[in-house]
Design goal:
Helix content: 55-70%
Distance between the termini: 23 Å
Low-confidence stretches: 1-15
Number of helices: 8
Radius of gyration: 19 Å
Shape: globular
Largest sheet: 3 strands, antiparallel
């Protein structure tokens, strides 16, 4: 194996691109995330929007280390399109997540039905969850049904992401779930919301997974901790915001979920 202009190559085949773009974007995301903690919820919209764009950019940069940029961007577009359309449909009809209304803090709306930040949130949730799932599943990456297992764990991590996101969204006045006949709720979201999130996640993964499969030969043994850092960073941010709002149960749940994923991610990275 040889090195050429910072790229690892096997013959003429590029194995991995430089890591500094993802590290830079992750660092900027961390700084923006810390800064957002000191801004009042009703005045934090610009900082939160900037933080979200940095997180989405980092999500794309992480994948482009080993995949063509056009494939990653297309997968991000499809992710945002399906996720945003599902939320827009839910705002109009109540399906698949339940009846929801978006507040002014959520920003300008696309097609007068869904805020622009919703598709971007889906990109961060899906991409970071998939990367974290790959880290956790390293001991089983040679299994015959690894692809299906990866989809299932990714969907579970995306569901946990949404579970922690709902209190954050309520504190930030991003959206509000309308009352239904279902009495069991989590910050206004019914079980229907989370079942819908799981279904839409699996649909997105079924469409984008072929574009996220590496088709070039090369070593893939080194674990990539960046997606896990992004996923855990989001969970910590959600948990701290919950604590600032006095939502101690929500903070505890976020902490338990983050600790469990951190353990299995650490275990997978050591394999």
């Amino acid at each position: 194996m040889s090195q050429t202009n910072g790229f690892s190559t096997t013959g003429a085949t590029t194995v991995q691109k430089p890591a500094w773009p993802q590290h830079l974007l992750l660092s900027l995301t961390l700084v923006a995330g810390v800064a957002s903690l000191f801004v009042p919820a009703r005045q934090s919209a610009p900082v939160d929007a900037f933080l979200l764009m940095l997180a989405a950019s980092a999500s794309v940069a992480i994948l482009t280390r080993q995949l063509p940029l056009q494939s990653v961007l297309f997968a991000a577009f499809i992710t945002g399109l399906i996720g945003g359309a599902a939320h827009g449909l839910s705002a109009r009809t109540g399906l698949p997540f339940g009846p929801v209304s978006f507040g002014e803090m959520s920003g300008p709306q696309l097609f007068n039905c869904v805020p622009w930040l919703v598709p971007v949130i889906w990109v961060v949730a899906i991409f970071s969850s998939r990367g974290t799932a790959r880290l956790m599943l390293r001991p089983w990456r040679k299994m015959k049904n690894y692809g299906f297992l990866l989809m299932a764990v990714t969907a579970g991590l995306a569901l946990a992401f949404d579970f922690a996101l709902e209190p954050f969204a309520r504190v930030k006045h991003l959206w509000l779930w309308q009352p239904t006949k279902i009495s069991i709720t989590w910050q206004g979201a019914t079980p229907m919301c989370f079942l819908g999130w799981m279904f839409v996640t699996l649909l997105i993964l079924a469409v984008i997974m072929p574009y996220l499969i590496r088709k070039q030969p090369g070593s893939t043994s080194a674990p990539n901790h960046a997606p896990g850092a992004l996923w855990l960073g989001a969970m910590i941010l959600f948990g701290i915001n919950a604590a600032q709002a006095g939502l101690w149960l929500e903070m505890a749940v976020d902490g338990i979920l983050a600790a469990a994923v951190a353990f299995f991610g650490w275990r997978g990275a050591k394999w």
